[in-house]
Amino acid sequence: MRPFLLLASRPEDEAADDEYAAFLRATGLDERRLRRIRLEAAPLPELDLDDYAGVLLGGGPFNSSDPAEDKSAVQHRIEAELSHLLDEVVARDLPFLGACYGIGTLGVHQGGVVDRTHGEPVSCVPVTLTDAGRADPLLAGVPDVFDALVGHKEACRVLPRSAVLLATSADCPVQMFRVGRNVYATQFHPELDVAGVVTRVRVYQHAGYFPPAEMEELIARVSQAVVTEPSRLLATFVARYG
User: Fold this and answer.
1) Mind listing the pLDDT tens digit for each residue in 129-165?
2) In the chain, where does DSSP find H-type helix?
3) Residue 114 neighbours by CB distance under 10 Å
4) Which among 137, 127, 141, 241 is positioned nearest to 176, based on CA atoms?
5) Number of domains comprising the chain
6) Do the Cβ atoms of 139 and 129 come closer than 8 Å?
7) Residue 23 belongs to a domain with what CATH number?
8) Which of 22, 40, 101, 229 lies 20 to 30 angstroms, CA to CA, from 11?
9) What NCBIfam families does this protein map onto (predicted)?
10) Cα–Cα distance between 2 and 196 in angstroms, integer?
11) pTM of the entire predicted model
12) Which domain holds residue 234?
Protein backbone atom coordinates (compact mmCIF):
# COMPACT_ATOMS: atom_id res chain seq x y z
CA MET A 1 0.00 0.00 0.00
CA ARG A 2 1.16 3.52 -0.75
CA PRO A 3 2.07 5.73 2.20
CA PHE A 4 0.56 9.10 3.04
CA LEU A 5 2.66 12.25 3.16
CA LEU A 6 2.64 14.78 6.02
CA LEU A 7 4.03 18.21 5.21
CA ALA A 8 5.06 20.06 8.37
CA SER A 9 6.51 23.51 8.97
CA ARG A 10 7.09 23.83 12.72
CA PRO A 11 10.71 24.80 13.49
CA GLU A 12 10.44 23.82 17.18
CA ASP A 13 11.36 20.14 17.52
CA GLU A 14 9.02 19.56 20.46
CA ALA A 15 6.01 20.96 18.62
CA ALA A 16 6.95 19.28 15.33
CA ASP A 17 7.41 15.84 16.89
CA ASP A 18 4.24 16.18 18.97
CA GLU A 19 2.29 17.11 15.82
CA TYR A 20 3.66 14.08 13.97
CA ALA A 21 2.73 11.82 16.88
CA ALA A 22 -0.76 13.33 16.90
CA PHE A 23 -1.25 12.62 13.19
CA LEU A 24 0.02 9.07 13.66
CA ARG A 25 -2.51 8.46 16.46
CA ALA A 26 -5.45 10.04 14.66
CA THR A 27 -4.81 8.31 11.33
CA GLY A 28 -3.85 4.96 12.83
CA LEU A 29 -0.80 4.86 10.54
CA ASP A 30 2.74 3.96 11.52
CA GLU A 31 5.85 5.87 10.50
CA ARG A 32 6.32 3.73 7.39
CA ARG A 33 2.89 4.72 6.10
CA LEU A 34 2.95 8.36 7.20
CA ARG A 35 6.10 9.96 5.87
CA ARG A 36 6.96 13.40 7.16
CA ILE A 37 8.77 16.23 5.40
CA ARG A 38 9.68 19.27 7.50
CA LEU A 39 9.38 22.14 5.07
CA GLU A 40 11.13 24.64 7.31
CA ALA A 41 14.29 22.50 7.43
CA ALA A 42 15.13 22.36 3.73
CA PRO A 43 13.64 22.97 0.29
CA LEU A 44 10.88 20.57 -0.70
CA PRO A 45 12.40 17.75 -2.76
CA GLU A 46 10.96 16.73 -6.10
CA LEU A 47 7.87 14.65 -5.41
CA ASP A 48 5.96 12.19 -7.54
CA LEU A 49 2.51 12.46 -5.98
CA ASP A 50 1.57 9.12 -7.55
CA ASP A 51 3.82 7.59 -4.89
CA TYR A 52 1.40 8.70 -2.15
CA ALA A 53 -2.16 7.78 -1.27
CA GLY A 54 -2.82 11.30 -0.01
CA VAL A 55 -1.22 14.45 1.37
CA LEU A 56 -1.72 16.02 4.80
CA LEU A 57 -0.59 19.54 5.68
CA GLY A 58 -0.12 20.42 9.33
CA GLY A 59 -0.26 23.75 11.10
CA GLY A 60 2.60 26.04 11.94
CA PRO A 61 3.76 29.49 12.98
CA PHE A 62 3.27 31.13 9.57
CA ASN A 63 0.27 33.21 8.52
CA SER A 64 -0.67 33.56 4.87
CA SER A 65 -1.97 37.07 5.55
CA ASP A 66 1.30 38.40 7.01
CA PRO A 67 2.56 41.43 5.05
CA ALA A 68 5.07 40.28 2.44
CA GLU A 69 7.80 42.45 3.92
CA ASP A 70 7.37 40.77 7.31
CA LYS A 71 7.72 37.23 5.99
CA SER A 72 11.05 35.49 6.36
CA ALA A 73 12.88 33.96 3.44
CA VAL A 74 11.86 30.53 4.75
CA GLN A 75 8.19 31.50 4.83
CA HIS A 76 8.35 32.88 1.28
CA ARG A 77 10.00 29.65 0.11
CA ILE A 78 7.47 27.42 1.83
CA GLU A 79 4.54 29.39 0.45
CA ALA A 80 5.94 29.16 -3.09
CA GLU A 81 6.56 25.42 -2.74
CA LEU A 82 3.07 24.75 -1.38
CA SER A 83 1.46 26.88 -4.09
CA HIS A 84 3.28 24.87 -6.75
CA LEU A 85 2.26 21.61 -5.08
CA LEU A 86 -1.37 22.72 -4.84
CA ASP A 87 -1.37 23.51 -8.55
CA GLU A 88 -1.00 19.79 -9.17
CA VAL A 89 -3.15 18.63 -6.25
CA VAL A 90 -6.14 20.74 -7.31
CA ALA A 91 -5.71 20.13 -11.05
CA ARG A 92 -5.68 16.37 -10.48
CA ASP A 93 -8.13 16.44 -7.55
CA LEU A 94 -5.70 14.40 -5.47
CA PRO A 95 -6.57 13.51 -1.85
CA PHE A 96 -5.43 16.38 0.36
CA LEU A 97 -6.31 17.59 3.83
CA GLY A 98 -4.79 20.76 5.24
CA ALA A 99 -5.29 21.65 8.91
CA CYS A 100 -5.26 25.25 10.22
CA TYR A 101 -2.36 26.65 8.15
CA GLY A 102 -3.75 24.44 5.42
CA ILE A 103 -7.00 26.38 5.17
CA GLY A 104 -5.12 29.65 4.74
CA THR A 105 -2.78 28.11 2.18
CA LEU A 106 -5.53 26.47 0.13
CA GLY A 107 -7.84 29.46 0.59
CA VAL A 108 -5.27 31.88 -0.84
CA HIS A 109 -4.36 29.46 -3.62
CA GLN A 110 -7.99 29.26 -4.70
CA GLY A 111 -8.61 33.02 -4.59
CA GLY A 112 -10.36 33.33 -1.24
CA VAL A 113 -9.72 36.14 1.24
CA VAL A 114 -7.65 35.17 4.28
CA ASP A 115 -7.15 37.84 6.94
CA ARG A 116 -7.35 38.42 10.69
CA THR A 117 -11.08 39.19 10.88
CA HIS A 118 -12.06 35.81 12.32
CA GLY A 119 -9.10 34.71 14.40
CA GLU A 120 -9.96 32.58 17.43
CA PRO A 121 -8.09 32.27 20.74
CA VAL A 122 -6.79 28.91 21.86
CA SER A 123 -10.01 27.23 22.95
CA CYS A 124 -12.54 24.50 22.36
CA VAL A 125 -15.46 25.64 20.20
CA PRO A 126 -18.64 24.06 18.84
CA VAL A 127 -18.43 23.49 15.09
CA THR A 128 -21.59 23.05 13.02
CA LEU A 129 -21.83 21.09 9.78
CA THR A 130 -23.57 22.67 6.80
CA ASP A 131 -25.99 20.69 4.65
CA ALA A 132 -23.08 19.95 2.32
CA GLY A 133 -21.00 18.88 5.29
CA ARG A 134 -23.61 16.44 6.47
CA ALA A 135 -23.61 14.88 3.00
CA ASP A 136 -19.82 14.75 2.62
CA PRO A 137 -18.27 11.27 2.90
CA LEU A 138 -15.27 12.53 4.86
CA LEU A 139 -17.65 13.65 7.62
CA ALA A 140 -19.63 10.42 7.77
CA GLY A 141 -20.51 9.62 11.37
CA VAL A 142 -19.61 13.08 12.66
CA PRO A 143 -22.45 14.77 14.60
CA ASP A 144 -24.08 17.88 13.17
CA VAL A 145 -22.44 19.87 16.01
CA PHE A 146 -19.17 18.81 17.59
CA ASP A 147 -16.44 20.34 19.74
CA ALA A 148 -13.03 21.05 18.23
CA LEU A 149 -9.79 22.68 19.32
CA VAL A 150 -8.79 25.94 17.64
CA GLY A 151 -6.21 28.68 18.01
CA HIS A 152 -5.39 30.88 15.03
CA LYS A 153 -4.64 34.50 14.19
CA GLU A 154 -6.08 34.42 10.67
CA ALA A 155 -8.98 32.69 8.93
CA CYS A 156 -10.74 32.50 5.60
CA ARG A 157 -13.14 35.46 5.49
CA VAL A 158 -14.34 35.02 1.91
CA LEU A 159 -14.77 31.47 0.67
CA PRO A 160 -13.10 30.72 -2.68
CA ARG A 161 -15.60 30.40 -5.53
CA SER A 162 -14.29 26.91 -6.19
CA ALA A 163 -15.00 25.78 -2.62
CA VAL A 164 -17.95 24.15 -0.88
CA LEU A 165 -18.46 25.18 2.75
CA LEU A 166 -18.68 22.11 4.99
CA ALA A 167 -18.50 23.46 8.55
CA THR A 168 -18.79 26.76 10.39
CA SER A 169 -18.76 28.23 13.90
CA ALA A 170 -20.10 31.34 15.62
CA ASP A 171 -16.86 33.34 15.50
CA CYS A 172 -15.25 31.76 12.43
CA PRO A 173 -17.66 31.29 9.50
CA VAL A 174 -15.29 29.06 7.50
CA GLN A 175 -14.20 26.10 9.60
CA MET A 176 -13.95 23.57 6.76
CA PHE A 177 -14.32 23.51 3.00
CA ARG A 178 -13.77 21.22 0.03
CA VAL A 179 -12.47 21.90 -3.46
CA GLY A 180 -13.38 19.37 -6.12
CA ARG A 181 -14.17 15.98 -4.65
CA ASN A 182 -11.00 15.18 -2.70
CA VAL A 183 -9.25 18.38 -1.61
CA TYR A 184 -10.11 19.49 1.94
CA ALA A 185 -9.05 22.07 4.50
CA THR A 186 -10.04 22.68 8.12
CA GLN A 187 -9.53 25.69 10.38
CA PHE A 188 -9.85 23.54 13.51
CA HIS A 189 -7.22 20.94 14.34
CA PRO A 190 -8.51 17.42 13.60
CA GLU A 191 -5.29 15.87 14.94
CA LEU A 192 -5.26 17.61 18.32
CA ASP A 193 -6.29 16.24 21.68
CA VAL A 194 -6.13 18.10 24.99
CA ALA A 195 -2.59 16.93 25.79
CA GLY A 196 -1.46 18.11 22.37
CA VAL A 197 -2.94 21.58 22.72
CA VAL A 198 -1.31 21.95 26.14
CA THR A 199 2.06 21.12 24.58
CA ARG A 200 1.54 23.75 21.90
CA VAL A 201 0.41 26.35 24.42
CA ARG A 202 3.69 25.89 26.27
CA VAL A 203 5.83 25.90 23.13
CA TYR A 204 4.13 28.96 21.62
CA GLN A 205 3.57 30.99 24.78
CA HIS A 206 5.57 33.90 23.33
CA ALA A 207 4.14 33.70 19.79
CA GLY A 208 1.33 36.22 20.29
CA TYR A 209 -1.61 33.85 20.63
CA PHE A 210 -2.23 34.93 24.25
CA PRO A 211 -0.47 36.95 26.98
CA PRO A 212 2.26 34.68 28.42
CA ALA A 213 1.21 35.58 31.97
CA GLU A 214 -2.14 33.88 31.30
CA MET A 215 -0.64 30.57 30.18
CA GLU A 216 -1.44 28.50 33.25
CA GLU A 217 -5.00 29.83 33.37
CA LEU A 218 -5.41 28.98 29.68
CA ILE A 219 -4.05 25.48 30.21
CA ALA A 220 -6.45 24.91 33.09
CA ARG A 221 -9.35 26.06 30.92
CA VAL A 222 -8.57 24.00 27.81
CA SER A 223 -7.77 20.96 29.94
CA GLN A 224 -11.49 20.74 30.75
CA ALA A 225 -12.35 20.16 27.09
CA VAL A 226 -13.65 16.82 25.87
CA VAL A 227 -12.82 16.46 22.19
CA THR A 228 -13.69 13.17 20.49
CA GLU A 229 -15.02 13.79 16.99
CA PRO A 230 -12.51 15.77 14.87
CA SER A 231 -9.99 12.93 14.62
CA ARG A 232 -12.64 10.90 12.78
CA LEU A 233 -11.86 13.02 9.73
CA LEU A 234 -8.29 11.77 9.62
CA ALA A 235 -9.24 8.15 10.20
CA THR A 236 -11.87 8.40 7.47
CA PHE A 237 -9.40 10.14 5.14
CA VAL A 238 -7.01 7.21 5.48
CA ALA A 239 -9.76 4.60 5.15
CA ARG A 240 -11.20 6.31 2.09
CA TYR A 241 -8.00 6.92 0.19
CA GLY A 242 -5.59 4.32 1.54
Assistant:
1) 999 999 999 999 999 999 999 999 999 999 999 999 9
2) 13-27, 73-92, 101-109, 131-135, 194-203, 215-222, 231-241
3) 22
4) 127
5) 1
6) yes
7) 3.40.50.880
8) 229
9) PRK07567.1 (NF005743)
10) 27
11) 0.96
12) 4-241
